[in-house]
Amino acid sequence: MSHTSLLRLLPFLLVAPAAAQTPEPLQAEIAWVAEGEFCEPETVLPLPDDTLLVSNVCGFDKEGNGFLTLLDRNGSAIDWRIVDDLDAPLGMALANGQLFVVDNNRVRVFRWPGFEPHAQIALETKVANDIAIGDDDAIYVTDSALGQVIKINADLEQSVLTGEAQFPGANGIHVNMDDLWVGGGKLWHVDMRDNTVTTVRPRSIGGVDGIEQEADGTLQVTPVGGPLIRLRDELEVHDADVISSANHGWAENLRLALIPTGFDNTVIAIRVP
């Protein structure tokens, strides 16, 4: 997000009135629902060719059960196991022709396109969860157990972002230039220029798993098991009976929010106007 866009949002995010905390939900416009061979889908990552990559945990305590599924833009399976033999793949990110997958306190790196294994990074984490890549190619990984974010620089040196654990239940993460957001028990904003941490309001937003950003700077968040929330001048909640979110993805070209439902083993596409 540009600093101009952030300044436009800050008055709402930091001092939102109490009435904005409980808006009337909008009926989500569901474009399609994908079903089939998913197994505890956790994250959806839209790729530049408009295909959609889905991480499947398939049992946190079972090594080798996890896999990645590739869908087309309409939710049809291209390859149910485009990458196999993972442990518990959670967050994913794509940068510089490389796919980064958080898997059992490691980052597994694959080449894209092609999905050939390329490298592994052992993480100094207890329960690594989501991942984001900065414009300077720094890697950021949330540690849910320790409530912190690990930063990995270009030399693969690891450090705790902001120098201390400040994010209880750290889960989702998103970075855009100097702005970084962390979800967990709350939703936090980190100003990367000085590591200032601010709680994003309304404070009723908690349990944040997915964090995405539209081209105009609008933030989207999905609480665990909850609906799609858009942080605009007025809070928008998009809900339907079938929605029970994990770590969603946003496909700007398609105007689709992609919701994995780990409990129901589906992926739901919500059309956003």
Describe the structure.
The chain has 1 helix and 25 strands. With 273 residues, the protein is mainly β. The strands form 6 sheets. A 5-stranded mixed beta sheet has the order 1-22-21-20-19, with no helix packed on it. The protein has a 4-stranded antiparallel beta sheet with strand order 2-25-24-23, with no helix packed on it. The longest helix is centred in the first third of the chain and has 13 residues, at 3-15. The chain is globular, with a radius of gyration of 17 Å. Residues 1-20 have low confidence and may be disordered.
Entry keywords:
mainly beta; Neuraminidase; four-stranded antiparallel β-sheet
* Straight-line distance between termini: 20 Å
Determine the strand fraction and express it as a percent band: over 45%
Helix content, binned percent = under 10%
CATH topology: Neuraminidase
Silhouette: globular
Structural class: mainly beta
CATH superfamily: TolB, C-terminal domain
Instruction: Name the average pLDDT.
Output: 91
The number of helices is: 1
Overall domain count: 1
- Which CATH class is shown? Mainly Beta
Give the total of beta strands: 25
Low-pLDDT regions? 1-20
Largest sheet: 5 strands, mixed
At CATH level 2, the architecture is: 6 Propeller
**Order of H and E elements:** HEEEEEEEEEEEEEEEEEEEEEEEEE
> Whole-number radius of gyration?
17 Å
